[in-house]
Amino acid sequence: MSVEMKHVPVLLTETLKYLNVSRFRERDGVFVDATFGGGGHSMAILDQTGQGLRLIAIDRDRAASQRAISLSQRYGERFTLLQGNFADLSQLLDEVQVKGIDALLLDLGLSSYQLSNAPRGFSFQLDGPLDMRMDQGQESSAADIIRTGTVDQLRDIFRRFGEEPYAGSIARAIVAARSQKTITTTRELADLILSLTPPAKSHRRLHPATRVFQALRIAVNEELQALVAVLEAGLSCLNQGGRLVVISYHSLEDRIVKRMFRQWSASCSCPPDFPVCTCGKVPQVRRLTGKVVVPQVDEIERNPRSRSAKLRAVERL
Ligand SMILES: C[S@@+](CC[C@H](N)C(=O)[O-])C[C@H]1O[C@@H](n2cnc3c(N)ncnc32)[C@H](O)[C@@H]1O
Questions:
Q1: 52 pLDDT exceeds 70?
Q2: Which of 13, 36, 310 for a ligand 1 pocket mutation test, highest count of atoms within 8 Å of Cβ?
C-alpha cells in the first residue's frame, strides 16, 4: 500500500536565513535548489524574494516534474525545474545558460513522497519491490545488488554505508537465502534481517533493517560520490558573497560536508610541524555555522522526520 503524504520542509526558517533570502527582495539573483523534492523550500524562497530572483530547481526523481507544475503556474519564468543528478550541476546550469549563482541549497536524502510510496522500494515498513532508484531511468536497482553481490561486496556496502555492526552475518545470510529463493521485495529482505536479530535486540528503537536499507540506498544512487561532486561544482559556481546551505540526515553525509567546509575555509594547509606557513593558501569561504544547526524540539514534534537533520552553511569569499 502507498500513502502519498505531503513533504514538510525541514529547518525552513533557518534555511531562508542562511541563504540570505531577505537580501534578494529588491535585487536580482539566481538561486539553485538542487533537491527540489516537494518544492517546499523552493516555494518559500520564491515567495520571500522579488521578481528579479530566478530559481533553478533540480531533482533526479522524474516524479518531481508533476509537483513542479503548480510552481511553474504560480511563478512563471522565475522558476525552472531540471531533471538530473546534482553531481552534474555545472552541465545542468550550462543547459540553461547560467554561469554564476547566488545560492545553492542541498536538502539531502529522500522526500516523504519517495519514502511513503511502496513501489519505490525505499521503506522496510512498506512492502514493495527492492528498487530504491531515485532516478527511475537508472538501470541498476537494490534488487540487482542483493541478487548479484558477493558476501564481501555486500558486507562492504553494509559496513561502509550503513555502519552496520552485523554486516558480515547479514551478507552471508542473504547469499545463503538467495540460493533457495530470489529476494525481490523489501518485506523479504526486512524479514530476513529481523530473523537474524537476537530477540532482546529486535525491540530497540531502531528497526534492525534500518542500516542495511540506508546502505543499499546510498550504494544504488552513489549518493556520497554525488555529494562530493556537487559540493565541488557548487563552490566553483557560487558568486562572491553567494551562500551554500546543506541539510544532511546521517553522519556519513555530515562528515563529508564538515570536512569540505573546513578545508575550504582554512587559511593554511601546511603540515602542523611546519614552523611558518609556506602554502600561501587563501580561504575560499567563510563558515556561517560555527556549530551545526539542528531543529528545535517543537519542529521535531511537528515533523519527526526532521529529528536527524543537521544544517551547515558557508559564504563564498
Ligand atoms: C529531502 S528531499 C527535498 C525536499 C525539499 N527540500 C522540499 O522541501 O520539498 C530530497 C530530494 O532530493 C532529491 N535528490 C537526492 N539526491 C539527488 C541527486 N544526486 N541529484 C538530484 N536530486 C537528488 C531526491 O530525489 C529528493 O526528491
A1: yes
A2: 36
pLDDT greater than 50 at residue 2: no
pLDDT digits (tens, 9 = 90+) for 123-140: 999 999 999 999 999 999
Q: Which ligand 1 atom lies nearest to the CA of residue 86? A: 20
By residue range, what is the domain housing residue 155?
118-221
Q: What total of structural domains would you count in the chain?
A: 2
Around ligand 1, the residues with Cβ closer than 6 Å are 7, 9, 35, 37-41, 58-61, 64, 85-87, 107, 109-111, 134, 226
Asked if the structure places residue 100 within a domain, the reply is yes
State the distance from the centre of ligand 1 to the C-alpha of 20, rounded, in angstroms. Answer: 21
CA 134 – ligand 1 centroid, Å: 9
Exposed / middle / buried, residue 84 (Cβ in 10 Å: 0-12, 13-18, 19+): middle
What type of residue sits at position 296?
Q
In a domain, 5, yes or no: no
Placement of cell 513542479 in the chain: 68
Phi-psi region of 64 (alpha: psi -120 to 50; beta: other; left: phi over 0): alpha
34 part of a folded domain? yes
| 23 and 89 co-located in one domain | yes
